[in-house]
Amino acid sequence: MAKVPSAAISRLVTYLRILEDLEARGINRTSSEQLAEEAQVTAFQVRKDLSYFGSYGTRGVGYTVQILRRELRQILGLNRRWGLCIVGMGRLGQAIADYPGFSEIFELKGLFDRDPSKITTTFRGLQVESMDNLPRAVAERRIEFGLLAVPADSAQAVADRLVESGIKGILNFAPAVLEVPKEVAVENVDFLAGLSRLSFFVLNPKWREEMIG
Amino acid sequence: MAKVPSAAISRLVTYLRILEDLEARGINRTSSEQLAEEAQVTAFQVRKDLSYFGSYGTRGVGYTVQILRRELRQILGLNRRWGLCIVGMGRLGQAIADYPGFSEIFELKGLFDRDPSKITTTFRGLQVESMDNLPRAVAERRIEFGLLAVPADSAQAVADRLVESGIKGILNFAPAVLEVPKEVAVENVDFLAGLSRLSFFVLNPKWREEMIG
DNA sequence: AGTTGTGAAATCTTTCACAGCC
DNA sequence: GGCTGTGAAAGATTTCACAACT
């Protein structure tokens, strides 16, 4: 399997969004040309990008929306929901938890805050917990990702606690540059910024290695 | 002037952040090697990236932090603050307005919300206004950018009103794909997501044309 | 007849070696 | 002597033409 340009992966996310839109509109057949138009790239590019991973269409016919969508979700690791906790339940943490599409990608399994007064409050059916519960929660509830929405001055300390707890990835929304082990830093967390392409993906392990672009 | 890879521009933003950090630490001389190490690229790359825009160092010596910083801010259009209004003052709008570093880039010149009950409230010294004031505010207060933090279902309508009002750019934080004239869509709005690299820039008009990468 | 999938060409980006300057 | 600035080489990505298949 050839090396995949990392730009190709980003475009896959765009194609997926388009396919989901087509499916919602009840359209079940498409072509590289149509995808290209919507994604503002060339049809050559669409076909090449897909070809890095396999062949999902039918010559002379095109692509079945549902099938291609399923394949892309599989490639991008979005065919399942990931367990997530949010640390820091200020306005930002709350806004993120409410973001549309959020629950399609993540299953919210814990809310944490340093402030004891917040601990009585409930959000999206979960009670905010003390930071002391964090290590146990990560271990026991299959929490794979931690989303940091704390002030800059505590971001590094909280990140360290997440790493100690054995978290798989950190989505950093705190206004700080973190020093964390490379495997744990999640790039491309774009829901919220710019745009609506749900730009979070966890590349399927099968393809992850080739993608150090 | 040669064509500039758009990836180079993104790296400029990184170099700028590093220079600001160096300056804060009282360091006033640096080298392509040091910048490269911090930015996790090669020294060749740093020098090449800078060379697209000019020569800002001294051979045999290196770069003066202050000078290079000023030049990069100039290139990236961050040597001035831009007038901005926020439309939608829910939790997201509020969290964004409070984001550290926000006021270094933007001068907040208007807060708008559809909800009449919000109109009595004050935020960062500005009273929230009715949407009816929008066109006049944009025209009279030199508001160059509009930041959209409204629900998905009203995002397009609000974007249209911003465009009609003669806004120069729209920073879209609403969970919707907008159809707006190309000149008005702002890419690379990254404060908030991922990183802490302040990833907003308005390329200096002198260089903007070459940079359709 | 029509559209995908892909090797090869063209283009773009990064790396490199060293000339140029302090 | 040392570090920048840059043309040219190497490498990566995108474009293209067309063979392959329905």
Q: How would you characterize the overall build of this protein?
A:
Chains A, B: Residues 14-53 bind DNA. Chains A, B: This is Redox-sensing transcriptional repressor Rex. Chains A, B: Residues 77-177 form the CoA-binding domain. 2 copies of one chain form a homodimer. In chain A, the strands form 2 sheets. The first copy, chain A, has a 6-stranded mixed β-sheet with strand order 5-6-4-3-7-8, with helices on both faces. In chain A, strand 5 and strand 6 (126-130) form a beta hairpin. Chain A has helices at 6-24, 32-39, 43-51, 65-76, 91-97, 102-105, 134-140, 152-164, 205-208, and strands at residues 29-30, 63-64, 82-87, 106-113, 122-123, 126-130, 145-148, 169-172. Chain A has 9 helices and 8 strands. By secondary structure, the first copy, chain A, is of the alpha/beta class. Helix content of chain A is 39%, strand content 15%. The longest helix of chain A has 19 residues, at 6-24. Chain A is elongated and about 60 Å long. Chain A has 2 domains: 6-76, Winged helix-like DNA-binding domain superfamily/Winged helix DNA-binding domain (Arc Repressor Mutant, subunit A, Orthogonal Bundle), CATH 1.10.10.10; 82-184, Rossmann fold, CATH 3.40.50. In chain A, helix 1 (6-24) packs across helix 4 and helix 2 (32-39) crosses helix 3. Chain A starts with 5 loop residues before the first helix and ends in a 5-residue tail after the last helix. The first copy, chain A, binds a DNA duplex (22 and 22 nucleotides) through residues 3, 5, 7-8, 31-33, 42-45, 47-48, 50-51, 55-63, 213.
